[in-house]
Records
---
Amino acid sequence: MTPQLNESGISVPGTSTHFLEPAGPGHGRLRYLTGGSGAPLVLLHTVRTQAEHFRHLVPLVGQRYTAYAPDLPGMGHSEIVPGASYGEPALRAAVTRLITQLDLRDVTLLGESMGAVLALTTAADLPDRVRRVVAVNAYDYAGGIARSSLLARLVVTGVLAPGIGPLLAGIEPKPVVRAVLSGGLADPSALREDYLDELLAVGRRPGYATVARAIYGNLPTLIAARARYPEVTAPVHLVYGEHDWSRPSDRQANRRLLPGAEFTEVPDAGHFLALERPDVLDAVA
């Protein structure tokens, strides 16, 4: 059976799907997965992914945390709102809305890539609710995914190009998507076929090409968000894969902005640690 518009083709054991209704005009309905027991752990995914990005991590943390994994605005199976912003402030506002509308407290925020930036800036906004931040491979430097391979650079450049960009954003041949995402993995086998199929199915949602193009185009807002890092008062753990797209200078720059942060570099791992090393994220959560 083909999943409905708001249904994933992947089942994450021990979780259920819920929706956060819009808080006002311009906001969309947010889908999120939740499961486990204990203090809240909010899991924030990255560009062109969704809540199921944490499918292997949620069962690992379920005895210590109640996990909440939202589909960020317009992504996954959250509502696509015409004309919505996909800059860092708008995405952060959605994370803040999730935490405040569900009245979550003593929250651990764990974000990967773009989600790592949102975890840090959300912590700056909600110091009374956030207990700790785990920022995994923060995506806050020029180039981003274009650093992973020549193919990724060509794809992102094409998607952002005037005129032809919207058309290219809606064309996602499976081998190309597999190759681009595999550029974020030291172990390409960590990209499971069913997850790739789910991402491709989501990419066929009406309006999704506009969302994808807007997300790639808003990378400068993620870079600008680094100015908020010194405002974070909660303890921070920075985690990087040895082969992440960030350069040593990018990592050191964030350590200077967050001088009290713990720091872990994961050997033989790439950008998508939630896919290839969920055990490491379980250990640091």
---
Amino acid sequence: MDGRTYPAKETPKSLRTRARILDAAMNLFARVGYHAATNGMIADAAKLTRGAMLYHFASREDLVAAAVAHIEVERARLFERAAATPPAGGVDAAEHAIDAYWALLHEVPFVAFAELEAAARSDGMLRERLAKAQSAFDHAQVGDRFLALARAGDDPRFQTSRDLGRFLLEGLARGSLTYDQEIRRERLLAVVKRAVRMLNRKGDLQDLWPE
């Protein structure tokens, strides 16, 4: 059951209302953070009374569980769309993958999930709800789909190149550059691309992967 799929007894109107609540939660998690996005604020954003929202989600835990599933569905949808878009002619596949993932990290579902991961460090309920989605994304989205996106092999060295690119980009997206942000960001992205290309070039001289 994903963030938009519920038992058959639910009416189309009820399904639309629940989807509206989950969209509102996702957008608020991304914009103001998990703890600031109270249930009341989410109800207001969804243009519902608090009582009406409680009809669909009786507790914060129910809402969070559905929101995590909803966000994960939206992340997978965006990732699949990116993976289905081939690089332009003459563009290195690894560089294309890095640019595509960097763009994805600034989409609302990815920002919202990053906010949830940060909040989960001090919230046991949220941490438990996120664990399955984190594992699924690590294995499916970043494994299989990033493999398609990067057009790389699946041996340990290529997996390491994807992990290197992934975690450096995620760290950069969440980091706080306080001056010369654009030029420093572009320099870092260029170095990430060079490092990933070096790892992907089997047989070429490089010092990043022990043969």
